From TrEMBL:
Region called Disordered, residue ranges: 330-352
Entry GO MF terms: 3-dehydrosphinganine reductase activity
Protein name listed in UniProt: 3-ketodihydrosphingosine reductase TSC10
Pfam families with a match to the protein in the record: adh_short
Key words, A-Z: Endoplasmic reticulum, Lipid metabolism, Membrane, NADP, Oxidoreductase, Sphingolipid metabolism, Transmembrane, Transmembrane helix
Gene Ontology CC annotations of this record: endoplasmic reticulum membrane
Enzyme class: oxidoreductase
Protein family according to the UniProt entry: Belongs to the short-chain dehydrogenases/reductases (SDR) family.
Catalytic activity of the protein: sphinganine + NADP(+) = 3-oxosphinganine + NADPH + H(+)
Protein EC: 1.1.1.102
SUPFAM superfamilies per record: NAD(P)-binding Rossmann-fold domains (SSF51735)
TM helices/strands, residue ranges: 274-295
UniProt KW Aminoacyl-tRNA synthetase keyword: no
Length: 352
């Protein structure tokens, strides 16, 4: 893919595991990885979507090599044992994954006091535990199992731009994406001696199914603050991710504002155009506090206009939830979308 220099993220003939692959970025990346010659295992909870994605990937890539395969595993990664079942499956098939893409995650925007305890715990589970448990359960096998000596391994985590600027509306989500950043930074040091590279994605907005869903409860003030990151398509996002991974980046950004915000807090972070980032960091040191104060003021204005935040975003969501439940009942489906709690129904189910 890289025109100049080496491709630092070769995927041909590699085995890639992608979590969060039932829709959105995970599905788009699975498709592209298969097109580029990788074998791919798609992982998420919703079996119906996974099965249809696998079918679609196979049908849309008729020139895949005879050694390539694409499969799915339906598992709830927030349950540690389900990750162990994935490990056992890999061992039983003598599969040696080269790359782990940990993309499962989603946000439920809203004001802190309006969120339910379930919203809060879903935020922790879906955004943090899915990656933490998955990598931990697979780690020993992942670092030891090599189909050839010297085999390079790669873990790709998915944080978000909000890890670099925390603002109202994402409180159920952005602290967890910061935890993912910290997890990636820690693993990068610790797994390097095992020959494992760790990269972290910091995407700006992109128009996935999850993004459409989150907009249903997103406060107007949150939409206004994040307006600097206009949604790109899922396809564009997947292309940018692969492009920058090919360049060898440890931190991957999908739009300018994400790179700028990351440059405002460089610290010990890996650099992307590091010299330029030092200048941007200087600008940030001077102006960022004023942007923060301006946003504080905007939040106060929104609060005064609404007469408080109580009840914001709730009703719209409940109506949509009810419609979805009715739709699913009509279809006779048993597994829901991310909006309807399907976690308790999911089991680890492997299908070739
Ligand atoms: N869209 C955006 O604007 C941005 C998104 N991101 C991040 O990028 C990643 C992909 O986002 P996007 O494509 O929008 O995601 P979506 O919300 O569209 O999809 C989320 C995926 O995660 C899976 N998932 C959720 N919970 C679990 C679970 N317990 N076990 C296994 N899989 C699970 C879902 O599958 P299922 O329900 O079938 O289990 C689904 O495949 C996420 O981590 C997101 O936080 C970051 C920045 C911006
Ligand atoms: C000079 C500096 C000005 C700074 C202005 C502040 C801009 C904030 C942009 C934040 C964009 C957040 C995108 C990711 C959101 C996300 O992760 C969810 N959509 C998840 O699905």
């Amino acid at each position: 893919m890289a025109i100049f220099g080496n491709n630092k993220f070769p995927v041909k003939d590699k085995l890639v595991l992608v979590t969060g692959a039932s829709q959105g970025l995970g599905y788009a990346l699975s498709q592209k990885l298969y097109e580029q010659g990788a074998s791919v295992i798609l992982i998420a909870r919703n079996k119906t979507k996974l099965a249809s994605n696998v079918d679609h990937i196979i049908k849309s890539t008729p020139n895949a090599s005879s050694t390539q395969f694409v499969e799915y595993i339906s598992a709830d990664l927030t349950i540690y044992e389900e990750n162990i079942k994935i490990l056992n499956y890999l061992k039983s098939k003598n599969y040696h994954p080269d790359i782990l893409f940990c993309l499962a995650g989603s946000s439920h925007p809203g004001f802190f006091m309006e969120l339910t305890p379930d919203d809060l715990s879903q935020g922790i589970d879906i955004n943090y535990k899915t990656a933490l448990y998955f990598i931990h359960a697979l780690s020993k096998y992942f670092v030891q199992s090599k189909s050839q000596p010297g085999q390079q391994k790669h873990i790709v985590l998915c944080s978000s731009t909000v890890a670099f600027y925390h603002f109202t509306g994402y409180i159920q989500y952005s602290p967890m994406k910061t935890a993912i950043k910290a997890l990636g930074d820690s693993l990068r040091q610790e797994l390097k001696p095992y020959g494992v590279k760790v990269s972290t994605l910091f995407p700006g907005n992109f128009a996935s199914e999850g993004y459409t869903e989150e907009n249903l409860t997103k406060p107007a003030i949150t939409q206004s603050i994040e307006g600097a990151s206009q949604p790109i398509t899922v396809e564009q996002c997947a292309d940018k991710v692969l492009y920058w991974l090919n360049k060898g980046d440890h931190y991957v950004f999908t739009d300018l504002i994400s790179w700028v915000l990351a440059s405002f807090s460089l610290g010990f972070n890996p650099r992307n155009f590091g010299v330029l980032q030092v200048f941007v960091a200087f600008v940030g040191a001077v102006v960022a506090r004023f942007v923060g104060l301006l946003h504080e003021h905007d939040v106060q204005v929104a609060f005064d206009k609404l007469g408080g935040f109580a009840g914001e975003g709730k009703n719209k969501k409940d109506d949509v939830k009810q419609e979805k439940v009715e739709e699913l009942l009509d279809d006779g489906q048993t597994v829901g979308t991310t909006s309807i709690d399907s976690s308790s129904k999911a089991t680890t189910d492997v299908k070739k």
